[in-house]
Amino acid sequence: MKSSLIIGIILIALGSAGLIYKGFSYESKETVAKIGSLEASADITKDVEIPQALSVILIIAGAGIVLVGLKK
Predict the structure, then answer these.
(1) Using CA atoms in the order 33, 35, 39, 42, what is the torsion angle rounded to 10 degrees?
(2) Number of domains composing the chain
(3) Boundaries of domain holding 37
(4) Which of 70, 27, 72 is nearest to 48 (CA)?
(5) Which residues does 71 contact at the CB level (< 8 Å), separation at least 6?
(6) pLDDT by residue (tens digit) across 10-27?
(7) What single string gives the DSSP state of each residue in 1-69?
(8) Whether the predicted pLDDT of 72 surpasses 80
């Protein structure tokens, strides 16, 4: 299989996943206060939104790469 076809398929899959899931969240441990040798930390959940326009652009670019790869 040509590398352009594989890249195109991966872009289409990533764009589709972005449209389906619309974002993801993750937890990080951050220090909220530090007094001398005492340290207070908290688990903070952060949300990352994936723009729909980016997902659509990835799908279109992937389809274009697949079509160009098939013509060669």
Answers:
(1) -10
(2) 1
(3) 3-71
(4) 27
(5) none
(6) 999 999 999 999 899 999
(7) --HHHHHHHHHHHHHHHHHHH-EEEEEEEEEEEEETTEEEEEEEEEEEEPPHHHHHHHHHHHHHHHHHH
(8) no
User: How confident is residue 70, by pLDDT bands cut at 50, 70 and 90?
Assistant: confident
Q: Token digits for 15?
A: 């764009």
Q: How far apart are CA 42 and CA 29, in angstroms?
A: 6
- Report the predicted TM-score, pTM, of the whole model to 2 decimal places: 0.72
Instruction: Count other C-beta atoms under 10 Å from residue 11's C-beta.
Output: 20
pLDDT over 90 (residue 1)? no
Please identify which residue in the block is written with the tokens 């220090």: 31
